[in-house]
Amino acid sequence: MISPSLPIPSGRTRYLAVLGHPVAHSLSPAMHNPALQAMGLDLMYLAFDVKPETLSEVLPAMGQMGFLGCNLTIPHKEVAFELLSDISEEARLAGSVNTIRFLEDGRMQGHSTDGYGLHEALREAFGVAFSEQSVAVLGCGGAGRAAALKAASSGARSLLLANRTLRRAESLGEELRTQFPSLKIELARSWPPTSTELADSDVLLQCSAAGMKAGDPPLLPPESFRKEQRLLDMTYVQQETPTMASARAAGLEACNGLGMLLHQGVKSLEIWTGQQVPVEPMRQALQQAVYGESSS
Questions:
Q1: What are the structural domain ranges in the chain?
Q2: In sequence order, which residues have a C-beta less than 8 Å from that of residue 261 and are 6 or more positions away?
Q3: Cα torsion angle, 57, 20, 40, 88, sign
Q4: Backbone φ and ψ of 179, nearest 5°
Q5: Burial of 34 (C-beta count, 10 Å sphere; 0-12/13-18/19+)
Q6: Cα(244)–Cα(231) distance, rounded to whole angstroms?
Q7: Cys-Cys crosslink for 264: which of 35, 43, 53, 113, Cβ 3.0 to 4.6 Å?
Q8: Is 66 helix (H, G, I), strand (E, B) or coil?
Q9: Class of domain 14-112+262-291
Q10: Does residue 77 have an active-site annotation?
Q11: What does the alpha-carbon distance between residue 97 and residue 119 come to, in Å, rounded to a whole number?
Q12: Could you report the per-residue pLDDT of 145-174, keeping only the tens digit for each?
């Protein structure tokens, strides 16, 4: 059944979609459709569960069917990066694609809006992002790697890499030193890092799974922080994560990862439509979907 809040599609309606496996949890349709309506565009955003082994067949078929574009989530981002030849510099740096634009001549352009989303979330929350900042990346998995690459490419003064398994932090450090040889990169020897290891960091990015489950303790106690620092916790299932609460108890500014998701989506819509995207309808829809309310 079509939601009463959505227009009924016609023979002229074009489509966007998110592809994942699984994809039922995706917030992208809830976020994008209100923006498309606000923009007055005859576009509709859908979600499809696509197995990784079929992605190479599904993407060209979507282009042939007249889809304007699609987003990709786990596990398709790296798969698409290997499939596509027309890749933006941002996607090339990230080594993954989360946004595809289908062109009328049959080509597929691959983009990554993940780094942009993080940058804009920091700028919106704190008035600063990465330029000339010392950045601590807490958790060096896929999200942490993307965050570190964005910080490095956006003019961070230095990076501290921390991970439960030191070897993963070492591997990311080696990759970053190859691409950014003049950047100061240090490794935390403790997990979680100590207050001494974090002392020189201006921006802290919580990229680990801490706080994903109910009852999780904060990754860091209040005494780990200094008041002038700022924390972004990529987890957004709670408006205030345990690590955010700990940081605020120490007097820090802190935000969760919902702003990242929001601005990733804004950038995708800009790529597809070439138009300025209304941010507030997307923000309110996300807050409603995740927290059951339309404003913070």
A1: 14-112+262-291, 115-256
A2: 27, 31, 117, 236, 286
A3: negative
A4: -85, -30
A5: buried
A6: 7
A7: 113
A8: coil
A9: alpha beta
A10: yes
A11: 17
A12: 999 999 999 999 999 999 999 999 999 999
**CATH number of this structure's domain 115-256:** 3.40.50.720
Q: pTM for the whole thing?
A: 0.93
Give the mean pLDDT of 243-268: 98
Query: Looking up tokens 């923006």, which residue turns up?
Result: 35
Is the pLDDT score of 3 beyond 50?
no
Helix (H, G, I), strand (E, B) or coil at 18: strand
In sequence order, the 6+-apart residues with CB closer than 8 A to the CB of 63 are 102, 103, 106, 108
Taken as a whole, the chain contains a residue count of 296
Which one from 77, 184, 213, 227 is the annotated catalytic residue?
Answer: 77
Measured CA to CA, the distance from residue 156 to residue 153 in angstroms comes to 7
Cα-to-chain-centroid distance, residue 55: 21
User: Mean of the pLDDT values across residues 49-69?
Assistant: 97
Q: Sign of dihedral through CA atoms 276, 71, 238, 257?
A: negative
> Tokens standing for 79?
């798969």
